[in-house]
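Reproducibility note. Readers wishing to regenerate the assembly model reported in the main text can use the exact inputs given here. Chain order matters: entities are listed in the order in which they were concatenated for prediction.
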Amino acid sequence: MHKLVKRLFSTIFLVFIIASAVWGYTLTREDSSSSLETITIGYQAGDPIDIAKTRGQFIKKMKKAGYKVVFKQFQNGSAEMEALASGNIDYARTGDTPPVTALASGSSITFVAAGSSKAKGSGIVATKSSGIKSISDLKGKKIAYTSNTSSQYMIMQVLKKAGLSTSDVTLVDMSQSDASVAFAKGKIDAWTNWDPYTSSAELTYSGAMIVTGTTVGASNRDYIISGSYAKNHPAASKALIKYLGQDMTWANTHKTKLVKMMTKSLKLPKKVVERMVNRRSYSLKAVSTKATSEEQAISDSFYTDGITKKKVKISKYVLNLK
Amino acid sequence: MADTILSIENLSKKYQGKVALNSTNLKIKNGEFVALVGQSGGGKSTLLRLIAGLEPMTSGTISQNNQLIHGINSNTRVMFQDDRLLPWKTVRENITFKKPKNSETAEVVNQLLERVELQGFADAYPASLSGGQRQRVALARALFVNPEILLLDEPLGALDALTRSKMQKLILDLWQERKMTVILVTHDVHEATKMANRIYVVKNNKIEATFENPLAYPRTDATCTNLSTTILNKIIDQD
Amino acid sequence: MQTLEENPHNIKINLAKILTNLLHYLLPWTIPTLIIISWQLASINGLIESTILPSPWQVVQTTITSLQSGVLEQNMAISLYRALSGFVIGGSIGFLLALCTSLSQTLNLLLDSSVQMLRNIPHLALIPLVILWFGVGESSKISLVTIGVLFPIYINTYHGIRSVDSNLIEMGHSYQLNSWQLFWHIIIPGALPTILMGVRYALGVMWTTLIVSETLASSAGIGYMSTNAQSFMDMSTILMCIMIYALLGKLSDLMAKSLETSLLNWQIKGGMING
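Running the prediction on these inputs yields the following structure tokens for the assembly.
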């Protein structure tokens, strides 16, 4: 009897496991029945693409234009650059730094569109206990940054501005999540990063923003990057810029809704999201000469400091849509 | 009935050039109980394995009922020192291995198990049986197909003295009941003299001597002692 | 496992046995329970900041909301699908490879040393290659799990088959079994205990590899939930995911164990079913 019950139980359990797996399988299947051209876009949590994805208008408009959009979330820009190089995604939204290093390492990528400046939300946040009030106080302090992100360019520009060299401070290269814990526990004095991490550090861990990108000319724009896809599919790129641009306009005019949406998707406190949204504006347009020269400045600076090994002319890689 | 059941002529076996059995001749009559004794490495087990067809012969012939034996000899069954029961099959499944399962075979198995005093163990797994019980299952399995010749390769070597003498009696009883031919390989001369009609001393890879043993059954230790001593001397005798 | 036979004539002994039984069940749970209780207490008293380490109760609440919104179930089902398909594919490849190398000397010479070389490559090192070959879709995740599962199954099947009692194989020959019967009735059951040990180990590897694979360009799965929460320091979701890993690990171990008890009951039990 006992054996029978046991057998029955294991059978039910097995059926449940297999049924769940089959359900999981159906969840991973995107409807491939349509004859639409598929465009895969890489993004990171909380970025403009995430807004367009959550809002839902973009997919509909692209579908009308004949494209089926698939989103793939990535943890960082380097992973997106890898996926672009191998042709696994067609477009990617990144910060300003990953495309520069990717170009210097010989990847063939194209700048498709640029966003507006996020300089106010990017900078260095100091812990309360560090006693840092201005950039000159950074001397001798422990500062976290994340390599191959805009924070690397930021810290270099700030140090130059303060007249310090890398040997005057202790730089620690940490991932965002590691640095977040280190900052909260006071294991580092300052943290070079961008929104929503800066807002979060200010509001949740009572840090103080001692310098922003505005001061040192680091805009930390969003960029839409493509491999060879954008060049071969100008119509798709045009539609992409157009509809993403519309979503960005919506974002600028519906900040309350935006805050609500992002608070839910990022699982961050509302006040953090509010601060982030209110100190920036949204846009995605064809790459301007200003944006190009900013990228050129990052590229040159990285080359001079020996971070990259190749001199790159950025304007050669900007997509020209007539 | 004194017709020859097994006839071996000029049988030789070499393992990688080394002689294991050298030009042996042997005739065994139907219904006999013969024993092969000798020191280990002398060739007695090789001879048994050749009769069973477990090894290919190098030269010579083996014929059973005037038919030449090639490959596995399916009219024989071997019982080894290790029981070689399949641990994942029950006693019944081991006995009926490779045979259809029906009420007829089930009845045969029940009778056999009763005969070896293991009634009630049909559905037990070998792991739950003692060494002696397992050997009795192995015996029942060998008898299940009614082999013409039962080959015993040191079947009792690993058992304690008491179990061993019980098993000796059981095997003798079954031999007499079933009127089959038995060939026993043993290093225990005493066991051989107690059980066999005829004893061959296998030494230096051939049959060195033959002893008839006409003593009446049941035999006691006392009645066998003289013959045992003679055979033992023959075995240890230097050439 | 020792089963404690109850003796109805002696209530004292009976009671003592029940108590020891109870103790055997409860003892493994004491340390986890104590840790959770003291953790909760420390959180209530403010000894632990909730932004650094949320209290167990917060984790429970997160779990409940994730379950209510259906997010957790969906992600678990997707992870389960990836894990199981990787396990089935990797397990079959490992098993078949092991059959080839353990049953044929030529194939053994040809393949075994290559497999042994590949075996020691850390799975993480293979991620860039997996992305290049399989892209960032489902196949890359499943193939990583496949690679992780393949080797423990291979090694254990190989050793299991190689160490089957040669006497039993000879017994099979004397019963004039053909190759297939020999394989099915003697080699496979004989190797089964070792193969199942491999299965148990592979189930553990399956989960750890899956978690890693779900950090690459993923948009679903438990590993994704955890890494996504990580980038915004959503500690209670991270802890929830950790709890789920622990739970899934324990569950697969239980499954493997019950598979062992049902397939290998001839090893453990004394038989005597009707006795």
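We highlight two features of this model. The longest strand of chain A covers residues 37-43. Chains A and B do not touch (no CB pair under 8 Å).
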